Amino acid sequence: MSKFFKFDELHTTFGREIVAGLTTFLAMAYILFVNPTVLGAAGMDKGAVFTATAISSAFGCIVMGLLAKYPIAIAPGLGVNAFFAFSVVIGMKIPWQTALAGVLLASIIFLIITLFKIREMIINAIPQDLKLATAAGIGLFIAFIGLKGAGLIVANKATTVALGSLTKGSTLLAIFGLLVTIILIVRNIKGAIFIGMILTSIVGLITGLIPVPTQVVSTAPSLAPTFGQAIFHLSDINTVQLAIVVLTFLLVTFFDTAGTIVGVAEQAGFLRDNQLPRAGQALLADSSSMLVGAILGTSPTSAYIESSAGIAVGGRSGLTAVVTGILFIFGLLFSPLLAVVTEVVTAPALIIVGIMMAGALGSIDWKKMEIAIPAFFTVIAMPLTYSISTGVALGFFLYPITMIVKGRAKAVHPIMYVLFFIFIIYFYFLSLNGNV
């Protein structure tokens, strides 16, 4: 196992990879409960979606770990699942079965362009400064999610966002977890983020802020209500409106995943000469899990920004992703225990990871405005639009413009010019269907 995952080369150990996999799983376990709630609003069976979420996540993580050997986890994406439920099914009044067929068709296209290495070419064509901006933007996005989950940042009609109540029990628990994690991080304690999550959970259970599970083991819900519906309704994709839905699924998931993989790879130090080794295998794991997820009955899967939590505690090999995948399978049977891992528990971890990823800002060439402007929009748009793909789109749209104006048009990779026009189409789709 050590030889297969190249522990020595990556300067990691079996124990560290196990902890990293567990940390990543705990940081993203919420999707097992959030995804059924979101898709349930569209009329889908919540139990079936729960099982589909767990299995598709396990499949994606294990394939990523064994094939690409990266510590990057995969699961149904947030944002795109809301687009699926609220924009497509509820807003456009498209049956959820037909919407799933749209996801399946998008995943087939995804798989084809992955096999022809088109996605890999695009990722490798992205300039280094924009890759750094993507990593930093994801860091701010993660921190924002953590601050929101902790209750430290709340919505405000007058100012958009504001400081939350510091007397609320759940917020105080998150502050405790954050302070403990900060102390452990500063003291260079190994596994600090994971230890912080465990201590926060324990204090939450003792104080009653986290409900004590009534049972430990439960039977996994049946997949019957959703399994295969995407295949049975492929023939329903026969209108321009549905074609636009399929393309939106494709574009959003493409750039959401590309942005996440680049950002996480930058954090972990995987990039070599501005290129990602085994990018094709990583993208194949992503696209194949999206196809499997559509058949089982869930919205598009994508690489998860919470993977950075596992990387932050030392995860560097594919074993981290494999462990995360195995835990998703166990999650089917031990779902009552997962209820302990609330937003308050994961919030401190996400904030700390955000701080770590923001370090990429220091390597961006801010003195050159043709670089600084698109980089800034990439970074700032992710948390402000609550979308990785939109941040990538804004920055990558501006990059060719600023470079041409500066007289550096020849320094821009031809693929970046192609992306310029693709992002114009992307923004058009968003304006039609709502932001995701």
From TrEMBL:
Q: Where in the cell is it found?
A: Cell membrane
Kindly give the membrane topology term recorded for this protein: Multi-pass membrane protein
Enumerate the GO terms in the molecular function aspect: purine nucleobase transmembrane transporter activity
Domain of life (superkingdom)? Bacteria
**GO CC annotations, alphabetized:** plasma membrane
User: Where mainly found?
Assistant: membrane
What keywords sit in the KW lines?
Cell membrane, Membrane, Transmembrane, Transmembrane helix, Transport
One Pfam family per UniProt: Xan_ur_permease
Looking up InterPro entries in the UniProt record yields: Azg-like, Azg-like_bact_archaea, NCS2
Spans through the membrane: 20-42, 48-67, 74-92, 98-118, 130-154, 166-186, 193-212, 242-265, 318-339, 345-364, 376-399, 411-430
Q: Which family does it belong to?
A: Belongs to the nucleobase:cation symporter-2 (NCS2) (TC 2.A.40) family. Azg-like subfamily.
**What name does UniProt use for this protein?**
NCS2 family permease
Species in which this protein is naturally found = Terrilactibacillus tamarindi
